Amino acid sequence: MGVSVEEFLGMLDRLPEVQQTPGGDWISLKVRGSGFGYLWERTETVGLKATIEEQIALVAERPEVFEVQFTAGRFGWVVVHLAGIDADELFELVTEAWCLTAPKQLIAEHGVGPDGGEAGPYAREAERPAGQAVR
């Protein structure tokens, strides 16, 4: 178990239009200018956008792997310790973060979803009316 920084960076190549921008001690991850994650190479950790419900569930399930980073609006960002997660689970979380951020049209054009399949309900969470759940 565990994912290296190099493996994580390779995962990003599987998602359309990911931009990596150095920001001091971290690399910012964006799609069409909107952020969905961060990488801290020195600590081998990643911060990813998630729903607040997902953030709470991940941290409760495995606090040795996941930490609360911060919340912003309806989103709960989570820190992931790369040494404690397998590649498939990490790619699912990265893809979900991407889908919560990417424009609907981009998601539809590429058929991207958290499991690599259709995006379905993950298309631009930010555009849903407040209180509308992902189904």
Annotate the secondary structure layout.
Layout: H1 5-12, E1 18-22, E2 27-31, E3 34-40, E4 45-48, H2 52-61, E5 66-72, E6 75-81, H3 87-101, H4 104-110
Antiparallel strand pairs: 1-2, 2-3, 3-4, 4-6, 5-6
Overview of the molecule:
The protein has helices at residues 5-12, 52-61, 87-101, 104-110; strands at 18-22, 27-31, 34-40, 45-48, 66-72, 75-81. It is α+β, with helices and mostly antiparallel strands and 135 residues long. A 6-stranded antiparallel beta sheet has the order 1-2-3-4-6-5, covered by helices on one side. Residues 115-135 have low confidence and may be disordered.
Strand order of the largest sheet: 1-2-3-4-6-5
The major β-sheet equals: 6 strands, antiparallel
Q: Strand tally, please?
A: 6
Principal-axis shape: globular
| First and last CA, distance | 30 Å
Helix content: 25-40%
- Coarse structural class: alpha+beta
Q: Given the structure, what is the number of helices?
A: 4
Mean pLDDT: 87
| Unreliable runs | 115-135
The percent range for strand residues is 25-35%
Q: Rg, please?
A: 14 Å
Order of helices and strands: HEEEEHEEHH
In short:
This protein is of the alpha+beta class.
Could you name the key traits of this structure?
135 residues; six-stranded antiparallel beta sheet; 4 helices; globular; disordered C terminus
